[in-house]
Amino acid sequence: MEKYRQSVSRSAPGCVVILLDRSDSMKLAWGRTGASLADGAALAVNNILLDMCIKATTEVNAPVRHYFDVGIFSYGARVTEPGEGVESAFGGALAGRGLVPLPELAEHPMAVREEPSIDLMPVAARMPVWVDPLHGHRTPMCQAIAVAGAHVFDWAAAHPDSFPPIVVNITDGMVTDSPYDGATLQDWARRLTSIETNDGATLFFNVFLSPFEVTEIVFPSDPGGLPPPGPDLFALSSPLPRPMADNARVDGYDVRPGARGLAFNVGRSTLLRVLQIGTRVPDRAR
Amino acid sequence: MNHTRQVVFYAPKHGNTEAEWEDGAAAAPAAGDGRGPRFAVADGATQGFGSARWAQQLVAGFVGDQGAAPDLTAAALHRWASDMQGRWHDDPRLAGATDLQRLKQATVGSFATFLGCELRDLAGPRPRWTAVAVGDAVLFHVRGHRVVSQFPPIPPEGFGSNPDGLPTHAAGLADMVGRASFAEGDLADGDLLYLATDAFAQWVAAADRRDPRALWTTLAALDHPEAFRALVAGRRAAREMVNDDVTLLRVRLDRRPAEHLVVCL
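^ inputs. structure came back:
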């Protein structure tokens, strides 16, 4: 039977996990924005969380619907203690939490404040914020996958009929902790994507940020021509399942057979679009 | 003189509660101004805000329960839908909205497919139905075990891809009303009209190809909400029907007036 067909509902919620690189190199300015990669990544994560809350908001006097459990795990600099490591990136009341049900997420942003437009329009808007920008130290990506994978494993066991977990890794650098606990980055990615629900295997998508204004490559079907670490990230990334490929085509991307969930050298607005495509699971339009 | 007997069946998405049904259905007898009996169904967008209110307001408005009911012309439909939009935005319940709810109302709003039908000349020489549709809610006109007409004529594989519907925001209204379609058909004693929202209509259109006699016998014999829900649950389990809110409004034409009012408890 075809996989990745399950629609998201409260009886079969989905799971979205974002791995957020907080290594030192995220301090670099992102193109012409004047802000750092860390600033832009946090802005995109907060935007996608707000998108998810908005989609699950259906009526006055009704709570946000529990369509997703959401986790944001950072790797690199830590907020909770000095030094390098992996931790929940949520701030405020959700600090330290792993996967958080969407209604609880909607209730507990760490702040509501003026934030710039992600597409560089000269406007700002008040919006809820769950994650702050931070950068420092190296890039313990293996450990991040290991920590997130433990949460994903438990979640999949508890939700066997749901759309499989979606894990999106936002990074600008090379892994610095491979091998970790005796396993390479490729091993950790394989372990992660071996976690399944009845609707398919966990999806692992990668978004590589570049501080320079270079050509964006989104959902490639061939690693040829990708500069390092593109080919490695291509190999780690899951093939785009049909619902996401359809989403991407609707958004104007030329998605070819064999396309992977990889976006390379992306700018801020593309990062948000890729997050939107990667987290939009099957749903009835009406 | 033809009389009408109507019944509405509905079911929310599997996994949702009764209160989360986001379709609408309404019926009203002939009005004193010469207007015939009216029937309507609508299907609110799952991803919208206040979709149930919007769908239910549209059907109530069309049958004359909220303001003046529209004539079945594009110009009248546009005026009426604008009025409906104003009422939806001014709903006093919105006073209690959270910031997130206000944001979604302002930026997304809602949207609903709509099908409205009026029966005319039921006491005259040419009894007929006349209808307007925006989107893929469907009217099936059935005589015996045969479909006399389907409006709009959407094949089973054509559902789910039609983006038409009535929006809550003014910006898209003129375009959508311009895409409304109108039709009419002559009625005979014993005819049945079925108004269905898309998930059920899609299944009906497919089942009519496979075994029309079985289909129309089953639908004509539905006599209790639980029988309808059992039918829907079975077809969903067989993956013949999409897991969506479903609504079926059945209207039967009969020369005899109804002798009983049936209430299902």
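Chain A is about 30% helix and 20% strand. The radius of gyration of chain A is 17 Å.
thumbs up if we can close this ticket
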